[in-house]
């Protein structure tokens, strides 16, 4: 259940803004679960033990335990809590006003979003890599938590919100650097927000962002965008091919915290099934690939994964 939250005035001063957004740490975005089936967990242990080159796909359900909301979970997901929908790629590219609104929301939410830390699930997957159990990890998340945990054999399928790309010249820079530019351009700007979204932003009314100023690329003056795949955009073909190549080298697939409703991730389950690679799923609630899996465990990722031994 979500804890009550009172709207906070957001000041452009980094220190004040961080304090204002600290209440977000106490929101619980993990869906309710029933008692864990011990037999299914034992079967998952056997599944992992039998694999020598495990391929893992992670989704938003892995990061909810770090305090980052997802889109589709019942009661606590973005779609259940609000009528807001994420930014579409076409809208971002076409409309300067949409970009202004997006970046104002992202600017306010960034101090909190960037401060999230890996949870037990991220740390467990990192350990599996260290001991040679995990061959490759593909994450649909853009929160950088796998990288923060030390994961190296990693593909960020949808990019990473901690990086920014210029749509004009392709220059990539750090999101933290852009935050300082926002602060310099908007020293007196104020806003008020009442909810948090999954991809690093918060909800603001349109009239709150009218005077928010957005910087351009320092190299060419072009449009800046998070280096993430927005809804309506496509994942880079080279990235997709790399993931298919790593999948072909694997002998088992484990899905952790993803409903696989987005085709960009689901396609790898279809490919695994075609290659007769066994599939297990650990996720609260149904997924698009349940019919493809030989094992399905409905439980919190951190709670289950931390008890699985990679031997």
UniProtKB/TrEMBL annotation:
Record SUPFAM superfamilies: DHS-like NAD/FAD-binding domain
Binding site for NAD(+): 59-79, 140-143, 257-259, 283-285, 301
Binding-site positions, Zn(2+): 166, 169, 217, 220
EC number(s) recorded for this UniProt protein: 2.3.1.-
CDD domains in the record: SIRT4
Location, primary (coarse class): mitochondrion
Cofactor binding comment, as recorded: Binds 1 zinc ion per subunit.
Keywords, sorted A to Z: Metal-binding, Mitochondrion, NAD, Transferase, Zinc
Limits of the Deacetylase sirtuin-type domain: 34-311
Molecular function in Gene Ontology: histone deacetylase activity, NAD-dependent; NAD+ binding; zinc ion binding
Catalyzed reactions per annotation: N(6)-acetyl-L-lysyl-[protein] + NAD(+) + H2O = 2''-O-acetyl-ADP-D-ribose + nicotinamide + L-lysyl-[protein]
Keyword Mitochondrion among UniProt keywords: yes
InterPro entries: DHS-like_NAD/FAD-binding_dom, NAD-dep_sirtuin_deacylases, Sirtuin, Sirtuin_cat_small_dom_sf, Sirtuin_class_II, Ssirtuin_cat_dom
Pfam families from the UniProt entry: SIR2 (PF02146)
GO cellular component annotations of the record: mitochondrial matrix
Cofactor field: Zn(2+)
Catalytic residues identified in the record: 158
Location relative to the cell: Mitochondrion matrix
Function, as annotated: NAD-dependent protein deacylase. Catalyzes the NAD-dependent hydrolysis of acyl groups from lysine residues.
Family statement drawn from the similarity comment of this UniProt entry: Belongs to the sirtuin family. Class II subfamily.
HAMAP family: Sirtuin_ClassII (MF_01967)
Listed PANTHER family: NAD-DEPENDENT PROTEIN DEACYLASE SIRTUIN-5, MITOCHONDRIAL-RELATED
This protein's name: NAD-dependent protein deacylase
